[in-house]
Design brief:
Blueprint (H helix, E strand, L loop, with lengths): L5 H13 L4 H14 L6 H24 L4 H13 L6 H14 L4 H14 L3 H14 L4 H14 L5 H24 L4 H18 L4 H20 L4 H13 L4 H14 L4 H12 L1
Helix pairs in contact: 1-2, 3-4, 4-6, 5-6, 7-8, 8-10, 9-10, 11-12, 12-13, 13-14
């Protein structure tokens, strides 16, 4: 029991200050905190746990300044937020994550922590959707922001009724239109293309695979992609997506074979994958 004291807490702080990635030290620190501040009952114990939590927030923020992508640090901060019942910290941490994502919008540890805080604080999902839009407008290559949208939209538009279904379908189509700016601005970046594939899957789930509405949507996307390929004929992602949609539309095999052969030449690292696809298309 003598190990779980303030002296050990200070020693751990010195170690993680030098190397924030030492998960063992953070685990030990949590054990010390739980020993020093057991489940509170009286107000004075609550005050002591709050004071301890504030120390942890200060320490983790200092560590994040030296290593913003340290998983053990983000995990510890998440643990403290719950352990200390730190509702008073929610607003500060939303600002902190916004600031850190402004410095590096690809910090997925920070994105994960932000989503955790949003759930804890019951932040309106519309606010978070607007936040992702700001990140995407600043950088179309922000995969985390696109991914976050794919998590937010189904929560915002839960298709419980026919009206909800129709509204969600409209939103998905609006998202397809939004993607066109990304495609024509940075067609070589994969982030938006993964989101595009997700949107098509969501529409197919709601409209059906071979319905007129779905086939018309696919044809519209194919027309847009063909326009893009006129400008960027050697770009992998639009070519791969055209091949994907052509298969969905059951277009003549000759067209798809030509696309797959071109993909083999411009993306040699995946030539065996395209070779397999060629075999399937030829059959």
């Amino acid at each position: 029991a003598g190990q779980f004291d303030e002296e050990s807490l200070c020693a751990v702080a010195k170690v993680v200050g030098v190397n924030p990635d030492m998960a063992t030290m953070w685990n030990f620190r949590r054990q010390i905190l739980q020993h020093l501040h057991p489940d509170p009952v009286a107000d004075e114990k609550l005050a002591a746990r709050r004071a301890a939590s504030e120390v942890e927030f200060k320490l983790t923020q200092e560590c994040l300044m030296s290593n913003p992508k340290s998983y053990p640090v983000w995990f510890h901060r998440m643990w403290v937020l719950e352990w200390g019942e730190c509702s008073w910290q929610w607003k500060t941490d939303l600002k902190l994550t916004a600031k850190m994502l402004a410095l590096d919008d690809r910090n997925f540890h920070c994105w994960t922590y932000r989503r955790f805080v949003v759930r804890q604080a019951s932040v309106p999902l519309t606010d978070e959707l607007a936040f992702t839009m700001g990140k995407i407008n600043a950088n179309f290559s922000n995969y985390s922001a696109w991914h976050y949208r794919s998590k937010l939209l189904p929560q915002l538009y839960k298709p419980a009724t026919d009206t909800d279904q129709d509204r969600f379908e409209c939103v998905l189509r609006e998202e397809l239109a939004l993607l066109r700016n990304a495609f024509f601005t940075a067609p070589e970046d994969q982030s938006a293309w993964f989101y595009h594939r997700w949107l098509l899957a969501q529409l197919e789930e709601r409209l059906g695979t071979a319905t007129t509405a779905m086939l018309e949507t696919l044809q519209e996307e194919l027309n847009m992609l063909n326009e893009l390929l006129e400008l960027e004929p050697d770009c992998k992602w639009p070519l791969a997506t055209v091949s994907f949609i052509a298969k969905k539309l059951s277009l003549p095999a000759d067209t798809r074979l030509a696309q797959l052969k071109m993909l083999q030449s411009i993306d040699p690292m995946r030539s065996q994958h395209y070779k397999h696809q060629l075999t399937l298309a030829s059959g």
